[in-house]
Amino acid sequence: MSDNYDVIVIGGGPGGYVAAIRCAQLGLKTACVEKWINKEGDPALGGTCLNVGCIPSKALLESSEKYEEASHHLDTHGINVGSVDLDVSKMISRKDSIVTSLTGGIAQLFQANKIDWLQGHGKLLADKKVSVTLHDGSESVHQAQNVIIATGSDPINIPSAPMTDDRIVDNEGALNWETVPKRLGVIGAGVIGLEMGSVWRRLGSEVVVLEAMDTFLGAVDQQIAKAAHREFKKQGLDIKLGARLNNTVVGDNELTLEYSDKDGDQTVTVDRLIVAVGRRPNTTNIADESAGLELDERGRVNVNDYLETNIPGVYAIGDVVRGPMLAHKAEEEGVVTAERIAGQSSKMHYDAIPWVIYTSPEIAWCGKTEEQLKEEGIAYKAGSFSFAANGRAKAMDQANGMVKILADEKTDRILGMHFVGPLASELVGQGVIAMESQNTAEDLARTVFAHPSLSECVHEAAFAVDGRAIHGVNRRR
């Protein structure tokens, strides 16, 4: 038996490393177990998000957007650059350097907060002991007063598209190609599929996306989703809805995707394929049977409203428990759990968690959609305003999309805020703050926003909730 700890966190992704740092700040003796090995063969913190998810994908989205702008859109600004050369290897290298910088920064924060990083696979044992299997196969056992399980999630694989080589990949593989495929297939029109499809389309691929659902972005407010769908179609993303992949025939130089849609059996030929059909909680081998950890029917760790498992002193956070699989949700759960362990009365608020899809245009939202309000029988009023009538958006040459606000019919309290358009990922923060502060649409309508700014669209949408937008034609009520 080695060191005793106040808290051992199993998993060093966004939820785990944030929980560990907050525990240490609160004076708790803390260790964090993380097994990740990066591209260079070195141990790394940050989990999926920092290493092969949120951060590297945004780096490539940014690079590819600059390439597309230089290649196709700068002339509208009176800037003629001639032919534009593409160095994909350098693009990938830049992405990797950003990842290394950020994961290295977490290691420095662990040092500064005196957190022990136990490098290996962590497993919960009985009596809040944690075994750590190191990369050389050796094992150590540590005692904790409290354990936080933050083991994240893994990509879902499908038998109709087995990942046999670098031509059929998940999100991690799609971040590391150093040549642009002429024809690219994507299975799944969710966040990962749309973002990765957008990266490679901008760099020159012909992209076809097969989505099994009949509705595009079913979790998104459908007025917003339809507007986004129209923009993606204009850009050349071929999104086939109601298309279920049956088989992938792997040839010497191409892949044939056999799928079914409303018109029957179909085929499409591509050079590479990204499988992005979702993620599942990583609960494989995270607890010994003797520990008695309970999972729910979907394989997630079962927790109560305070993120406590069925075992006293053992908590679980992030993708491994119920709720949206979002890094920022995991981070906040990590903070709340650390503070509860330290005796504070913290609790998570789930009603206004923001969602973002970092395509162009960006899609973002918080709170309820119009479809959810109708289903729940909640009386509401809606106001929207187009970026096409916004001076800043026009100056940016990004005037597509809208802001939409949903408010309670009786109280005027904001119930949801939805965006499709430029910098939606930043603007949605205004919706989160408004909802957390229990603001009304009138509160936003009476707030002064800078001119010219994209935020003025939030202002106008708030006015439009009651049919009094200034710079747009109001709907008859």
From TrEMBL:
Start and end residues of each FAD/NAD(P)-binding domain: 5-334
Co-factor binding details: Binds 1 FAD per subunit.
Catalytic residues, chain numbering: 451
An MF annotation (GO) of this entry: dihydrolipoyl dehydrogenase (NADH) activity
Keywords for the protein's UniProt record, in alphabetical order: Cytoplasm, Disulfide bond, FAD, Flavoprotein, NAD, Nucleotide-binding, Oxidoreductase, Redox-active center
Domain Pyridine nucleotide-disulphide oxidoreductase dimerisation: 353-462
Residues bound to NAD(+): 188-195, 211, 278
Subcellular location: Cytoplasm
Pfam hit, one: Pyr_redox_2
Disulfide bonds: 49-54
A single GO BP: 2-oxoglutarate metabolic process
Cofactor: FAD
Catalysed transformations (reactions): N(6)-[(R)-dihydrolipoyl]-L-lysyl-[protein] + NAD(+) = N(6)-[(R)-lipoyl]-L-lysyl-[protein] + NADH + H(+)
Top class in the EC scheme: oxidoreductase
Binding positions for FAD per the UniProt entry: 58, 122, 151-153, 319, 325-328
EC number: 1.8.1.4
A GO CC annotation given for this chain: cytoplasm
Similarity-based family: Belongs to the class-I pyridine nucleotide-disulfide oxidoreductase family.
Note: The active site is a redox-active disulfide bond.
Name of the molecule in the record: Dihydrolipoyl dehydrogenase
Classification of source organism: Bacteria, Pseudomonadati, Pseudomonadota, Gammaproteobacteria, Thiotrichales
